[in-house]
Design brief:
Blueprint: E1 16-17, E2 30-31, H1 35-41, H2 43-56, H3 78-83, E3 95-96, H4 111-114, H5 132-161, H6 170-175, E4 201-205, E5 211-215, E6 234-236, E7 241-243, H7 265-286, H8 295-303, H9 321-333, H10 349-367, E8 377-379, E9 382-384, E10 386-389, E11 398-401, H11 423-426, E12 438-439, H12 454-467, H13 472-476, E13 501-503, E14 509-517, E15 525-532, E16 538-546, H14 556-564, E17 567-573, H15 576-586, H16 595-604, E18 606-612, E19 617-622, E20 644-655, E21 664-673, E22 680-681
Parallel strand pairs: 2-12
Antiparallel strand pairs: 1-3, 4-5, 6-7, 8-9, 10-11, 13-20, 14-17, 14-20, 15-16, 15-18, 18-19, 19-22, 20-21
Helix pairs in contact: 1-2, 2-5, 5-10, 7-9, 7-12, 9-10, 10-12
Length: 687
């Protein structure tokens, strides 16, 4: 792939662009594989991937007996591609504009553009927006493209140098697509990170069936061209820890607060194991969206954690894909790169994470093809446009977002003809979609690049929801139905559900809606919901992560949300087995029990924690109306207090004639605000 160019390469004096076409050169669609499956079952692809991903990062092993090519263009280097997601805040080498197009008048050396609230360029950030899924799709394709191009050249070199290897390497290179890590898989995520994602070396296959141990490009990235000048340290006052981004020459995970850095893999594993059930149940709930929702509002709820269309009423509560994806960022990163939006893409695991995010997008849009952002949404009869502070060189103010045309530009990703990718082009992976040249393996009967009937799509979403742990039909058979008999289950038809559905008696689902101020802790942070056990002991139920940037970041979109006091939403599902234990053991069942007495008993059994990016506890809270009030001098500052932590319940309807059909949630009821007695601030470290 060559860069389209004019006469010279001075930024701002000619139009340069590196077209994002994915693996178009192969002329075929191939599957992105689970990284552990690739390692075990596709040794040639795995070898080509490891060597190519290393080469993109500027690392070439010269001892293997065959040539590994260099990256030919700056736009194809890991350093440039990672910088698109945040810092360094300057124009991507694959999208350079002539003066007449540089409407933002940006200069990376001018304070007006680099201070925390710049007047001009604020990065390519597309988070907390309906553009979140579609913007990250060509981003992943770009990395897939540069890795694949190098793999093609490595394979050709091997077959040229070793005639006996002809036919073994080139076909595998043609099939190579960027692998994914399914962090929500309940069969594997309780074990934490697979070793291939963190060990510093990895074994690959060489010509002739030999093997070699090489540096693992997934474990960390060393800056190819030095530390960017705008990288700055991030100090967390609550823990007294500093992430030394201005000093560290490579990426780290759960790093110590030292200029030398380091990665604490044991800390990473413990953190991931702790959120395993949250990830699985959250993804399961995403595939339980009801039928007949307004398409634009449904897509807004799924796509992002800000939910521009939600306005005031919460009548349906599912988490968003963006909110769940943020948990991985904060959990893997700790006091390291993945936790901070400005630096996260410099950890090589970022692209395995986002390959899986893209896979989940592909599954969801296959299951719900009718749900889409459209031109905006309608609330109480009034039409509203989607908006986003794009912060690009072309659009610097809070502007309307559309799925196509100039107001849908997914900057800085261009097509071959020089136009930008748009959300409409980024949709779908089937044969009728804009070409992307990749797919994913069949999963629960779903092949995302194949056409399907409505019945097949319904069966697919029911199967996916159950795989990830959302299975209220089975859960309802495992609770004490007599103890649950007081829970109301109205007729589904009263909520507009077809009469072919019937309510599951003696059962409701219980979820906690978490609403957090985005910039409460001057960076990413976590909320944890705990169940109180014996004494002062608690057990973690679920997590919500705020994945954001610190106040000194030049991200324009973040600056606008900071001024607006943006609220981030997350949803934590209470396990039915836990709810059953609380109902049975609290004495809230029986003739005198009501839904209100049950929800109060649940509230009293819960507690909350706020943790900073390093997972240091910042504050705690006790649930229930009888919890002791936190004295004012011990409470959190008002700007740090969660905007809401609220218990909701819903009844469940199943199709009477077909129990395998997706269930419908209805009769959503808002119950207790869990932590009305205040948040107790934890002791602060010495300065």
């Amino acid at each position: 792939m060559t860069m389209q160019e004019d006469a010279c390469d001075t930024p701002g004096t000619a139009t340069y662009y590196y077209p994002v076409v994915g693996r178009k050169s192969t002329g075929t669609v191939s599957d992105r594989l689970y990284i552990t499956d690739m390692e075990k079952s596709d040794p040639y692809q795995f070898t080509l991937f490891i060597l190519s991903y290393s080469a993109v990062q500027g690392v070439r092993d010269t001892t293997l007996g065959f040539a590994i090519p260099d990256v030919e263009l700056p736009a194809a280097s890991y350093w440039e591609i990672a910088g698109i997601h945040g810092k360094p805040y300057y124009e991507y080498a694959g999208d350079r504009k002539p003066p007449q197009e540089r409407a933002a008048d940006y200069s990376q050396d001018s304070p007006k553009d680099t201070l925390p609230v710049p007047a001009r360029f604020g990065g390519y950030c597309n988070h907390k927006s309906v553009m979140f899924p579609t913007w990250h799709r060509p981003y992943m394709m770009l990395m897939e493209q540069v890795v694949g191009d190098i793999a093609d050249r490595i394979a050709a070199n091997i077959e040229k140098q070793y005639p006996s290897e002809v036919g073994k390497w080139v076909p595998e290179a043609q099939k190579l697509r960027f692998p994914f890590w399914d962090w929500a898989d309940p069969a594997t995520n309780p074990q934490g990170l697979p070793s291939v994602l963190y060990e510093d070396t990895v074994q690959i296959t060489l010509p002739g069936g030999k093997s070699a141990t090489v540096q693992n490009p997934i474990s960390y990235y060393t800056y190819q061209f030095g530390i960017p000048s705008d990288f700055s340290n991030v100090y967390t006052a609550s823990s007294g820890l500093t992430a030394y981004f201005s000093t560290w020459t490579r990426s780290y995970r759960h790093a110590p607060s030292t200029p030398q850095g380091g990665t604490d893999i044991a800390g990473v594993q413990t953190a991931i194991q702790g959120v395993a059930s949250t990830l699985s149940s959250g993804i399961g709930l995403l595939f339980a969206f009801p039928e007949g929702m307004d398409p634009a509002i449904a897509y807004d709820y799924f796509s992002n954690e800000l939910n521009e269309s939600r306005m005031i009423v919460d009548y349906f509560n599912s988490s968003s894909l963006e909110a769940i994806h943020g948990i991985i960022h904060g959990t893997v990163g700790g006091n390291g790169h993945m936790t901070q939006q400005d630096y996260s893409a410099f950890d090589p695991i970022f692209f395995f994470h986002h390959s899986n995010v893209d896979r989940l997008i592909a599954l969801w849009e296959w299951c719900y093809p009718q749900y889409w952002m459209g031109d905006g949404y309608v609330y109480n009869g009034t039409s509203y446009s989607w908006t986003q502070q794009l912060g690009t060189f072309a659009q610097v103010y809070n502007e309307q977002i559309l799925p196509a045309g100039a107001r849908g530009n997914l900057t800085p990703f261009r097509n071959e003809n020089g136009t930008y990718w748009t959300p409409e082009q980024a949709r779908f992976l089937d044969a009728t979609a804009y070409p992307k040249y990749y797919s994913y393996p069949e999963f629960q009967g779903v092949k995302v690049d194949q056409a399907a009937t409505d019945a097949q799509r319904a069966a697919g979403r029911a199967s996916i929801a159950k795989y990830y742990g959302f299975d209220p039909q089975t859960a309802a058979t495992q609770v004490d139905t007599e103890a649950w008999s007081h829970l109301p289950v109205p007729a589904p038809k009263d909520s507009g559900i077809p009469e072919t559905f019937q309510g599951i008696q003696n059962y409701r689902i219980f979820v906690v809606l978490v609403q957090l101020p985005e910039f409460a802790l001057n960076g990413s942070y976590h909320f944890e919901l705990h169940h109180n056990t014996t004494g002062n002991q608690t057990e973690l139920i679920g997590t919500t992560t705020v994945f954001t940037r610190p106040s000194d970041s030049p991200c324009a979109a973040c600056a606008v949300r900071r001024e607006m006091g943006a609220t981030i939403r997350g949803v934590i599902t209470l396990p039915p087995s836990l709810v059953n234990d609380i109902i049975v053991n609290s004495g809230t069942s029986g003739g005198k029990a009501t839904l209100e007495t049950t929800t109060e008993a649940i509230a009293q059994s819960l507690s909350g924690k706020l943790l900073d990016a390093s997972r240091k506890v910042v504050a705690t809270a006790r649930g229930g109306t009888n919890a002791p009030t936190v004295p004012p001098n011990q409470g959190l500052p008002p700007h740090m207090v969660p905007n809401g932590v609220t218990l909701f319940t819903a009844a469940v309807a199943e199709k009477a004639s077909d129990k395998t059909y997706p269930v419908q949630l209805y009769d959503w009821q808002k119950h207790n605000a869990l932590f009305t007695s205040g948040w107790q601030q934890a002791a602060q470290p010495a300065s």
